[in-house]
Design brief:
mainly beta; 4-stranded antiparallel sheet; 11 strands; 117 residues; single chain
Length: 117
């Protein structure tokens, strides 16, 4: 069982930066692939970034070169550094945990990111 708690969201001007954190409970955090997703008002939830248990990463095209996902297994935390933010990045951001290539089984409650123009 994994519990996830996101933090770090807020209001920022376009071009600014934020760093989201996702703290996990449970002893097997290092075995999980971790992902960030987002959902804007009236839109479907979409994939943002993923980091595997061994540290390989992949990103949605819309954030590539601006966002960086990382993890600290000792702190059981995954991060999303977001730079050059745009108004279209406004959404609720969720982290999620995935084991063994299966579905994302565990989700956090989300943190709001609002980018003003």
């Amino acid at each position: 069982q994994v519990q996830l708690v996101e933090s770090g969201g807020g209001l920022v001007q376009a071009g600014g930066s934020l760093r989201l954190s996702c703290a996990a409970s449970g002893r097997t955090f290092s075995n999980y692939d971790m992902g960030w997703f987002r959902q804007a008002p009236g839109k479907e939830r979409e994939f943002v970034a993923r980091i595997s248990w061994i540290g390989s990463t992949n990103y949605a095209d819309s954030v590539k070169g601006r966002f960086t996902i990382s993890r600290d297994n000792a702190k059981k935390t995954v991060y999303l550094q977001m730079n050059s933010l745009k108004p279209e990045d406004t959404a609720v951001y969720y982290c999620a945990a995935q084991a063994g290539g299966g579905p994302y089984d565990y989700w956090g409650q989300g943190t709001q990111v609002t980018v003003s123009s």
